[in-house]
Amino acid sequence: MFPRFHSSSVQTVADSRLPLAAFLLPALPLAAQEKFRYDTSYQLYKEEADRMRVESWYYRAEMSLSEATLLRFQLLRDAVSGATPTGAQPGGGQPFLAEIEDVRNGVLAALSQQLGDHRLELEVSRSLESDYLSNGLSFSDHWELNQKNTTLSVGINYLDDSVRVIGIPYQKKYSYDFFLGLSQILDKNTILSANLTVGSNEGYLNDPYKAIQRTDSVPDGLGGTVDVVNLYRENRPAERLRTVLQLQGTHFFNRPQAALDALWRISNDDFGVFSQTWQLEWRQSFWNGRVELIPFGRYYLQSAADFFYNTLDEVRGARAEDYPMGRGPHYSADYRLSSLQTASLGLKLRLRLGEHCSFSAACEDYRMQGRGSKQAPAEAYPRARLLTLGVSFLF
Question: What residue numbers bound the domain in which 307 lies?
Answer without folding.
Answer: 8-394
